[in-house]
Write a structure and sequence with these properties.
The complex is a heterodimer of chains A (407) and B (402). Chain A has two domains: 264 residues, 3-Layer(aba) Sandwich (Rossmann fold); 89 residues, formyl-coa transferase, domain 3. Chain A is 39% helix and 13% strand. Chain A contains 18 helices and twelve strands. In chain A, strands 3-2-1-4-5-6 form a six-stranded parallel sheet. In chain A, strands 7-8-9 form a three-stranded antiparallel sheet. In chain A, strand 1, helix 1 and strand 2 form a beta-alpha-beta unit. The longest helix of chain A is centred in the middle third of the chain and has 24 residues. By secondary structure, chain B is α/β, with parallel strands linked by helices. Chain B folds into two domains: 247 residues, Rossmann fold (3-Layer(aba) Sandwich), CATH 3.40.50; 93 residues, formyl-coa transferase, domain 3, CATH 3.30.1540.10. Chain B is built from 17 helices and twelve strands. In chain B, helix 1 packs across helix 7. The longest helix of chain B has 24 residues. Chain B starts with 9 loop residues before the first strand and ends in a 5-residue tail after the last helix. The chains are: A alpha/beta (407), B alpha/beta (402). Chains A and B meet through helix 2, helix 6, helix 7, strand 6 and helix 8 of A and helix 2, helix 6, helix 7, strand 6 and helix 8 of B.
Chain lengths: 407, 402
């Protein structure tokens, strides 16, 4: 096993999830990521839940720690002339710059790609914004809820007639983060061939609009069909639905008729129940799903309500029926499969021996060494190391920069 | 300047349905020669997706979306001779991608250990639903049900009400995007260290990796979250509001006091904005239902796009809940080529999604439509593997190339 990205120098000037998620994926594989935060305030995720036992503290946000392990942290006010100059010195020696500045601000501070490529033509600049670097909305604002709305996701989740629902938390921000990480790797491969860096433009809206929702456009153009939300089910051959059971919910989906028949045999103790077999309305699963789904939901309810979700899951697994329990978060964290596979990781805080279980690596490499055991930096933790040891500022200069609120 | 960063790389693609094919689609967009293996004995289910009204395997728009830029061959893997041909193809490939159930590749004699002997520096990626090993490795899932099994759906529903679920292929697409990263890391690794490797991407694990907040909420604060609706625990205005028209909505989110003041000004400073119960973020969060009602009254007689323009001009984050039509017609999306028309021999013009990110110097692009069944058999078996026309004809007659 070796560190695939060892020696790769990354500067991260990005907050909350998208940019930091991109940065932490690189850091896990050995890249040296220097994270720049605003003096005194820091990354906004430092203020975000959750905190141990709900006691909030800027050095103890679980989200911040999850996303910033293995990075070194410095503070810098890039809106001052001196701060900007220091940033440029860091970028001169960097391979990758991950940034999420509003397009206008980057231009005003002359930290946009044309300016940066002049000081370091090999630099790969990864820009992450809600709407992208170009287009008429490029200066518009957007949080995760706004990106998923514009990206077409929200309108497809929720009950018809009621307000659309946003994918929980900031899923879209993670999608933009992994897209940015992909683009960084493409640009690294390209740099070996063309000898120079380039500008990567990642839009959080497009992280949804391209792959998650972008493939239904032909159906609209040729058949005026729009994908909209249908509550706890998807309009499709029955079943494609989430239904309540004794202690929660189950996701019932059967793309093949044989799977559905096997489930009905479980319900009918070995044979498809008469109430189903003798009802003309259910002969065609597609029609049943579109026209009689409510009736079928009701007819199945007595059986579902007398079984727990895990009982249903176990029975379905025996008969190769692809239904799944809707697991709650505690059940996921304590799941036997995930724990036997050693999936979860732990985060710990600097100078403390408390450990908290967190999501582990999204993939497993046989040869690339994945490691995220270094805790996230406290605010400005590596100022001395970076400014004095690497950029040759004296301790006295560092103290002055600190007093002037530049660092 | 060369446009494609993966030019010169070849991928043997066993992927079907969605997770693996979408990953190789992105790699193909960036220049890799992706050779998709199919068979008429067992069609890729995506050739018969819900939008394929013709029920013709060549006419599925989703198939076209996620298989553009690929070459297509047909080979019935239940024949040993087909397996031999595929092994020859792998010998001249850089990457192998597959998302069969665990054990299927091994059954064909195409497990990583075997492939490594054929091509020592091969990069192989598998996309099992829950994992190649472990007590749940046998579980059959689809993208939408995986969101339930992974806990995501337990939070999707109106606040405190029943579970509705995402009802989406989020798990598939999330797995694809993470798979692309893993393959690129492995290719870089091979370049530096001269060795290939095996990548296991459990779709369930990749999904949970994007759920840090609720997981940590439980492990750090002991709280199991249920359905959360559109609520945020830090933003008091964080919802979607009904607008003029049929099923038209606008999303609005306000985080800072500065944004709140800009919002009040943009909507004309109505008296309720001065009410004591809305004086700061904490109070607004406590009274969010009342606040949402008042905001809905303001949005009700405006279009979702009007609200976006009015609020964005003031520096407030607001976007329409765009439906398919909105997105297709939106000038910003058109300018950024979110959807691209591609001529396909079986359907005429199909509109499919464009590039998932924009690289300024090596942007990639759409070079060709999705393959017809076996469209590139002659190129792959003849030109690439050097089989004669007679042998190819025999293999076709014996339904090995089929």
């Amino acid at each position: 096993m070796s560190q695939t990205l060892r020696g790769l120098k990354v500067v991260e000037l990005a907050q909350f999830i998208s940019g930091p998620y991109c940065g932490v994926l690189l850091a896990a594989l050995g890249a040296e990521v220097v994270k720049i935060e605003k003096p005194n305030v820091g990354d906004q995720s430092r203020q975000s839940d959750p905190f141990p036992n709900d006691i909030s503290h800027p050095e103890r946000s679980g989200l911040f720690h999850f996303l910033n392990r293995n990075k070194r942290g410095i503070t810098l006010n890039i809106e001052t002339a001196t701060g900007r100059e220091i940033l440029l010195r860091l970028l001169k020696r960097a391979d990758v710059f991950i940034e999420d500045m509003p397009v206008k601000l980057a231009r005003r501070l002359k930290l946009n790609y044309p300016s940066l490529s002049k000081i370091n033509p090999r630099l790969i600049v990864v820009s992450i914004t809600p709407f992208g670097q170009t287009g008429r909305y490029c200066n518009y604002k957007g949080y995760a809820i706004n990106s998923s709305a514009m990206g077409g996701m929200s309108l497809t989740v929720g009950e018809p007639g009621r307000e659309p629902l946003t994918p929980p938390f900031s899923l879209g921000d993670y999608q933009a983060g992994i897209v940015a990480a992909n683009a960084t790797m493409f640009a690294l491969l390209a740099r070996d061939m063309i000898g120079e860096g380039q500008h990567i433009d990642v839009s959080q809206v497009e992280a949804w609009a391209v792959f998650h929702t972008g493939n239904v456009v032909s159906a609209y153009i040729y058949r005026q069909q729009k994908r909209i939300r249908a509550g706890h089910r998807t309009p499709a051959p029955y079943p494609y639905t989430i239904l309540p059971c004794k202690d929660g919910y189950v996701f019932m989906i059967a793309l093949r008729g044989a799977q559905w028949k096997r489930f009905l045999e479980i319900v009918g103790n070995g044979k498809v129940p008469d109430w189903y077999a003798n009802d003309e309305r259910f002969k065609d699963r597609r029609r049943a799903g579109l026209e009689y789904a409510d009736d079928l939901d009701k007819l199945l309810a007595p059986w579902l309500m007398s079984h727990t979700k895990e009982e249903i899951f176990a029975l379905c697994r025996q008969r190769h029926v692809p239904f799944a329990p809707v697991r709650n978060i505690d059940e996921v964290v304590n799941d036997e499969h995930l724990n036997q596979r050693d999936y979860f990781a732990e985060i710990e805080f600097n100078g403390s021996n408390e450990k908290f279980k967190c999501p582990g690596s999204p993939f497993r490499f046989s040869q690339s060494w994945w490691d995220l055991t270094q805790p996230a930096p406290s605010l400005g933790q590596h100022n001395y190391q970076i400014y004095c040891e690497q950029l040759d500022y004296s301790a006295e200069q560092l103290a002055r920069l600190h007093r002037m609120n530049i660092i | 300047m060369m446009k494609y960063p993966l030019q010169g790389y070849r991928i043997t693609d066993f992927g079907w349905t969605a997770a693996a094919p979408r990953a190789t689609c992105i790699l193909a967009d960036m220049g890799a020669e992706v050779i998709k293996i199919e068979t008429r004995t067992h069609f890729d289910p995506i050739r018969f997706g819900p939008d394929n009204v013709a029920r013709d395997p060549e006419k599925d728009p989703l198939f076209h979306s996620i298989n553009r830029n690929k070459l297509g061959i047909t080979a019935d893997l239940s024949h040993p001779e087909a397996i031999d041909l595929i092994k020859q193809l792998i010998k001249v490939s850089d990457v192998v991608s597959e998302n069969f159930s665990p054990g299927v590749m091994e059954k064909y004699g195409l497990g990583y250990d075997k492939l490594k002997k054929i091509k020592p520096d091969i990069v192989m990626i598998s996309f099992p639903a829950t994992g190649k090993e472990g007590p749940m490795s046998d579980v059959v899932t689809y993208g939408p049900s995986l969101a339930s099994l992974s806990g995501l759906d337990s939070m999707v529903g109106y606040f405190g009400e029943r579970v509705i679920g995402m009802q989406q292929a989020y798990a598939d697409i999330n797995a694809s995007l993470h798979g692309v990263f893993a393959v690129l890391v492995a290719l870089r690794h091979r370049k530096l260290y001269g060795e290939g490797q095996y990548i296991e991407l459990s779709q369930m694990e990749a999904l949970i990796s994007t759920m840090a907040e609720p997981i940590l909420e439980y492990t750090m604060a002991g709280r199991v979250l249920g359905t959360i609706g559109n609520r945020s625990n830090i933003m008091s205005i964080h919802n979607v509001y009904r607008c003029k028209g049929d099923d038209k909505w606008v999303s609005i989110a306000i985080r800072t006091e500065e944004e709140w003041r800009a919002f009040c000004k943009a909507i004309g400073n109505p008296p309720w904005t001065k009410m004591e119960v809305f004086a700061d973020n904490y109070r607004r969060l406590e009274h969010q239902e009342e606040l949402d009602r008042l905001i809905s009254q303001w949005t009700a007689d405006k279009t979702h796009y009007e609200v976006m323009e009015m609020l964005q001009k003031a520096g407030v984050a607001a976007t329409p809940c765009a439906d398919t039509e909105d997105r297709f017609l939106d000038p910003h999306f058109q300018e950024r080529e979110v959807h691209i028309p591609v001529e396909h021999p079986a359907t005429g013009v199909d509109w499919i999604p464009g590039m998932v990110c924009k690289l300024s110097k090596t942007p990639g692009g759409i070079r060709k439509p999705a393959p017809l069944l076996g469209q590139h058999n002659r190129y792959v078996f003849g030109k690439l593997l050097g089989l004669s026309e007679e042998i190819i004809a025999r293999l076709e007659a014996e339904k090995i190339i089929y």
